[in-house]
Amino acid sequence: MAQANLPSQMQIDAASTSSQFREFLSQYNKITEQCFMACVHDFTTRKVVNEENSCALHCLEKFMKMTNRISQRFQEHQMTTNDALAAATQKANS
Questions:
Q1: What is the dihedral of CA 31, 36, 38, 41, to 10 degrees?
Q2: Where are the alpha helices (DSSP H) in 40-49?
Q3: What is the structure's pLDDT at 3?
Q4: Taking each helix axis from N to C terminus, what angle separates 8-39 and 50-93, rounded to the nearest 10 degrees?
Q5: Which of 44, 70, 42, 72 is nearest to 56 (CA)?
Q6: Which family is annotated (predicted)?
Q7: How many CA atoms lie within 13 A of 6 on its CB side?
């Protein structure tokens, strides 16, 4: 109910932040589960063995690199799209 008193931009920012945090938690849970399922196989001891630890680190590193690469490609695509749109707008205005 406190959000009803906030200016609309603050409400949008709060909703966006909340949405981003939920997305972060979703991604975190997804990668944690994937790496755990791929790397942890020995449940006879409470200790994490070196192979499991190494596998989990490589799994996370691969995920981070993939995420960064996708982000870079998306940014490149957005820039190309924006350039094309700007050129089309400029051509239409000429």
A1: 180
A2: none
A3: 52
A4: 140
A5: 42
A6: Belongs to the small Tim family.
A7: 11
Identify the H or E element spanning 6.
Answer: none
**Is residue 1 over pLDDT 60?**
no
Collapsing DSSP to helix, strand or coil, 61 comes out as: helix
What per-residue confidence (pLDDT) applies to 29?
95
Check if the beta carbon of residue 67 is closer than 8 Å to that of residue 31: no
List the Cα angle 63/64/70 in 5-degree steps: 90
Tokens 């709060």 locate to 14
Reply yes or no on whether the pLDDT at 4 is more than 70.
no
